[in-house]
TrEMBL record:
This is N-acetyltransferase domain-containing protein. It comes from the Eukaryota. It comes from Elliptochloris bilobata. PROSITE patterns: GNAT. GO terms for molecular function: acyltransferase activity, transferring groups other than amino-acyl groups. Residues 1-136 form the N-acetyltransferase domain. Gene3D superfamilies: 3.40.630.30.
Length: 137
């Protein structure tokens, strides 16, 4: 399976259809200052991915997903840390479903703090928690 196909398979499995980028992934990756990072094992198998955009002011993490068999093994942590090192911005931001306890715990461990609630972000009645991490200049 190609890396592109593996990323799309992880995307489809990790997110509900309404939240999935499956149909728009190629267009999203063509946006200016957008980066796709993939975690792969020694055989080249994609374990997970992260999509972020960057500027001098902020790095915004848009998507993080890890294949089921590789969850809870530090893959997402490594991906987020790599994104933060990739481009030094003043801060990093992300939006997360407040019901996603695993993601909230991960981001808190990495130093992200809550920075507000975005009502109806995912859909009517489905907010997103905005989180921010101040980075050393």
């Amino acid at each position: 399976m190609s890396a592109d196909c593996a990323v799309l398979a992880i995307e489809r499995h990790s997110f509900a259809k309404a939240d999935s980028w499956s149909s728009i992934f190629p267009a999203e990756l063509k946006r200016r200052n957008t980066v796709l990072l993939c975690a792969v094992d020694c055989s080249g198998k994609v374990l997970g991915y992260l999509v972020f955009t960057f500027s001098k002011l902020a790095t915004h993490i848009s998507k993080v997903a890890v294949a089921d068999p590789h969850r809870k093994r530090g893959v997402a942590t490594l991906l987020v840390q790599a994104a933060l090192r990739w481009r030094r911005s003043l801060c990093a931001t992300l939006h997360v479903d407040p019901a996603n306890a695993a993601a909230l715990a991960l981001y808190a461990r990495l130093g992200f703090t809550e920075d507000g609630l975005l009502t109806d972000y995912y859909a009517p009645g489905r907010p997103a928690l905005k989180m921010v991490l101040e980075l050393a200049s």
